Amino acid sequence: MSLEKAEKYLEKKGFLDHVIELEASTATVTEAAEALHVEPGMIAKTMSFLQNDKAVLILTEGTARVDNRKYKDTFHIKAKMIPFDEVENIIGHAPGGVCPFGINEGIEVYLDESLKQFTTVYPAAGNDHSAVKLTIPELEQVAEANGWVDVCKETEN
Question: Per-residue confidence at 6, pLDDT binned at 50, 70, 90?
Fold first, then answer.
């Protein structure tokens, strides 16, 4: 059902042809990167947070980790992930397929600066066997994000 919701949303936006359905699992960044033959950072990982009674999605590059200090400085609240077993009910997609496409009403979406190092990224498309190939400008357009944030730790090279 989640894949269909995401595809319906993407079709309305003119991006249905960007959806990639795979035999292999894309549930984790590592699995998605292997299935798509891209580096893990190019997987646009969608993380789900609760801010009081409001749900927030933040898309980051695949290997990024949230910096609690930066998150609190940005949102003025402590970072609190949505519990695994509540994600599907709150967001509209189950873990492994969470994406900003076809989500429940009232969820704010943000893009993390960590994504900008890539030209093309691959967020999920609603389930754990899908992805959407998007350039950064396309992602900005189709995700209807509230804006860019910088809430990830600096990656160590």
Answer: very high
Instruction: Output phi, psi for 5, to 5 deg.
Output: -60, -45
**pLDDT score, position 1:** 66
**Tokens, residue 107:** 């969820």
DSSP 67: -
The torsion angles phi and psi of 18, rounded to 5 degrees, stand at -90, -10
CA 54 to chain centre: 17
CA angle 57, 120, 92 (to 5 degrees): 25
Angle of CA points 14, 19, 23, to nearest 5°: 165
Q: What pLDDT score does 125 carry?
A: 96
Backbone angles phi, psi at 8, to 5 degrees: -60, -45
Q: CA neighbours within 13 Å on the CB side: how many for 2?
A: 25
Closest C-alpha among 106, 140, 107 to residue 123: 140
C-alpha triplet 136, 142, 148: angle, nearest 5° = 55
Q: Helices 136-143 and 2-13: crossing angle, nearest 10°?
A: 110
